[in-house]
Design a protein that fits this description.
The protein is α+β, with helices and mostly antiparallel strands and 430 residues long. The chain has 16 helices and seven strands. GO terms for molecular function: DNA binding.
Length: 430
């Protein structure tokens, strides 16, 4: 043994058959290893708390000087005295769970129904499908190969910035779907998914710490587009004209129902005849975004649903053109109608916003509108919004005004609306 210096290290010769070691005479456990290839690497050798001999690489000679390597070795050997195990720590970094592995675990558990979501029920299949898309399109391509234990909060927020800047954006490759964009909204949803799945993994002991704890989610710029009274009237005229020209009748009827009820697109398209109770103005959904719900609908909406139900023998109100499923092409029909009408940025959710806007214009409270839309209860008071006469009257009143506009009529004044509402309430009591 001799003190390692630049001269002694450079004088070391390699052995073609095995590694060669030279240990420092001053710092016990510090040495240099020469591979048969001639590569010289500084190492430390020690016994861990289980009295097992371990070796850990400090760095390669040439990258580190002898004195730099000696300082690092001294620090690591001092940590060993306090119970550290540098070799095990280095090994755990190399073989630790990656983000991709945790994502795969989450998707498998969630799709099997073994993970409980915020509503204390298994995570919905539709939610898992959205999570899978964000994982495959944004999370895995950017940080999938990173080890979870080595990620920092700054890495997560940098990921959010990269997604927002469009680093994972790609052009549409087919006529339908396939387009991925950037933006704050996309980035916020991707990071929310990552944070949620890492919290699940931490809670169930898959990882020790979530690097996403405390992450600040970007605020998306939500533009709540809704149709004005004039736009609804114009849309109705165009729909009538296109119906005469042979536009898809189920698609046009679905658009009308979404406007008249404020129901979500999937709720309308997947609606079954058995769920509809025209006499009570109710639709019993066995499952929605907020769980099972009983929702009210006005007479104008019920007339459309009843007529549509009689148009086929399918169990669905809006049956598919082929097969046993339900109609799915309402987005394309709405796109054609709005293109003809010259209306921009109109989606099925715009129709839902338009219903809510009309209800607000008629003076209905935020609590009542929330009940009409089927929002999940967020407070004690909202739990007491039942399917009583007042809520049905509200749904009927809003649907009647929208139907009036669609059929080319004029929007009544608030005074006329309130008088009609009072009359309807008196009739209900009588």
């Amino acid at each position: 043994m001799t003190r390692l210096t630049k001269r002694t290290v450079e004088a070391l010769k390699s052995n073609r058959e095995r590694d060669t070691f030279l240990w420092d005479s001053e710092l016990r456990g510090f040495g240099v290893r020469v591979k048969p290839s001639g590569t010289k690497t500084f190492i430390i050798q020690y016994r861990n708390q289980e009295a097992r001999t371990r070796r850990c690489v400090i760095g390669q000679y040439g990258v580190l000087t002898v004195e730099q390597a000696r300082d690092l070795a001294q620090k690591k050997l001092a940590a060993v005295i306090d119970g550290a195990d540098p070799s095990a720590e280095r090994h755990s970094v190399r073989t630790g769970l990656t983000i991709a592995a945790v994502c795969d675990w989450y998707l498998a558990e969630a799709e099997s129904g073994r993970l409980i979501g915020r509503n204390r029920r298994p995570i919905k299949a539709s939610s898992v499908a959205g999570d899978r898309s964000r994982i495959e399109l944004h999370i895995k391509p950017l940080i999938g190969n990173r080890v979870v234990s080595q990620l920092k909060l700054a890495d997560i927020e940098r990921l959010q910035g990269d997604i927002a800047a469009g680093r994972t954006a790609r052009a549409r490759r087919t006529s339908r779907g396939g387009q991925t964009a950037g933006g704050s909204g996309v980035a916020a949803r991707a990071i929310s998914t990552l944070r949620a799945l890492l919290n699940h993994a931490r809670r169930l002991g898959i990882i020790e710490v979530s690097p996403a704890t405390g992450v600040r989610i970007m605020a998306s710029q939500k533009v709540k587009r809704y149709l004005s009274a004039g736009e609804i009237r114009h849309l109705g005229k165009v729909m009538t004209q296109m119906e005469r020209e042979g536009e898809h009748p189920a698609g046009l009827a679905a658009i009308r129902v979404m406007l008249l009820t404020g129901f979500r697109r999937t709720e309308v398209l997947a609606m079954r005849k058995a769920w509809v109770q025209p006499d009570d103005n109710l639709v019993r959904f066995p499952d929605t975004k907020s769980g099972p719900q009983i929702r009210v609908a006005g007479d104008s909406a019920m007339h459309v649903l009843e007529a549509q139900a009689l148009s086929s023998h399918s169990p669905f109100i809006f049956p598919a053109d082929w097969g046993d499923g339900h109609f799915v092409g309402v987005v394309r029909v709405l796109g054609r109608v709005c293109a003809r009408a010259g209306l921009d940025r109109v989606t099925p959710h715009t129709l839902r916003h338009s219903f809510a806007s009309m209800a607000a214009a008629q003076g209905f409270s935020e609590l009542t509108i929330s009940g009409l839309l089927g929002h999940a209860p967020r407070g004690v008071t909202q739990r007491y919004v039942h399917l009583d006469t007042a809520l049905i009257i509200a749904a009927d009143q809003v649907a009647a005004e929208i139907a009036r506009l669609l059929d080319g009529g004029e929007l009544r004044s608030v005074r006329e609306i309130k008088q009609a509402r009072t009359l309807a309430a008196l009739r209900a009591v009588a």
